[in-house]
Amino acid sequence: MNFSLYAAKDFSTFNEYLAAVLACLLAFLTGMHAGWTSPFIPKLLSSKDYPFHITSEEASYIAIFGPIGDLFGAILSMLLVDRMGRKNTLVILGTPMLFSSLLIYFSYLSPVLLYIARFCGGISFGTVSTIITMYTSEISRPAIRGKLGVILMLLYTPGTMAVNVIGKYFSMYETAIFSALVTILFLCTFSLMPETPYYLLMKGKTRMAEKSLCFFRRTQNVEEELKKLILVVQRQLSESRRFQDIFLIDYNRKAFILMMFGRIFQQTCGAMAFLMYAQYLLAESSDFIQPQFAVVVIYFVQTCVTPLSGYSSDRYGRIPLLMFSCAGCSLCLLMLGGYFSLKDFQSLSLPISCPVFILGFFYIAYQIGLGSLMLVMLGELFSASIKPKAIALVNIMYALAVIITTKIYQVTTDYWHPSIAPYFFALCTISAAFSINKYFPETKGKSLEEIQFELKGNKKTATHN
């Protein structure tokens, strides 16, 4: 075996991995943004290390101002990605994350700055699943496209984990400095990476596309791949790219409806609501384990589960894994609701560690299917001609679902009972399981062209039957 040749061939993918990792530094930052409420809302509510009194109602709006920013981020992504390019859009819409960190640092002047900071961070959050997935898929060769796609979640979840660790030992202001430094690192390093060859060919910049390919392939011999890519881009540019085609063309509309509900299902199981209030939810378990440490362990397990999700979905299929995920999440939610009901309405002495273990298994079940695979299918179901617009619209619906489910959790917990939200989310997740099983296509082992063909043929087949 010629090991030196194997090593050289393997090293040829270095620039692709490098660019993907640098792009996904923004995913790490948005993970910090998403998990920020978990360590710091309890501190805000107790006025610890903060000069202003924050009520539970005000804290809920601090939490949901992030998803409101997501809406604007998704819209801006849709408007900029085909005009400015994938790389430039990531840099432009990653910059608000720096403003978010600075505003949090200066929020001791006024709590209003916290609302603005969460909104700015949300703008950057709204770009991640749209632009990063496009960038990584367009720079990578087919043999490693799946591996590069997983990097997003592999850095996003550690971001949520990191903010909980830092939030335990450092103040809100020190955490903001750390976030600002990582944002500067992202902006300074990723801005040096080339634009994707695909986008450059879209703009007729063949010479620049060739240079981009040479960088990512680490070779000057890219003529054959460049010719094939030119043909692919010409074919895709020949398709109609109008915004209304998302709704007017049958297979586009079907893909949009499926992924809209798929992204909503990700939130109607309560994943983001529990994430934002995790330490508050686990406060009563502090005698068993510190809430901050419990959250870190949960996110660490999620990080470990993410590669398993990708491997298992390629072996067993997307739909079986999504069904397993829905079943596991529903069971955990019913158990969590049952714990709060028995604790408050029955004279039973239940272990205070129950919510920790239940949430741990909930997030394992969530990450194995709903948390990871909906993002995979988001890049699989849409035609390339309308993908940026369709994904942006789907992400807008996702952000609205985050806002609604987070508010449902806060209202039902504060004004009714902590068991109401888990029972409600369990009912939604059971409904999601039936919908996924009945309507979602299996995409395992199929090319993007085969998936599009299946979407186009469903209506005809159904009519014939």
UniProtKB/TrEMBL annotation:
It is found in: Cell membrane. Keywords: Cell membrane, Membrane, Sugar transport, Transmembrane, Transmembrane helix, Transport. It comes from the Eukaryota. GO terms for molecular function: transmembrane transporter activity. It is a multi-pass membrane protein. PROSITE patterns: MFS, SUGAR_TRANSPORT_1. Signal peptide: none annotated. Its main location: membrane. The chain crosses the membrane at residues 61-81, 90-109, 115-136, 148-170, 176-201, 255-277, 289-309, 321-342, 348-378, 390-409, 415-436. This is Major facilitator superfamily (MFS) profile domain-containing protein. It comes from Henosepilachna vigintioctopunctata.
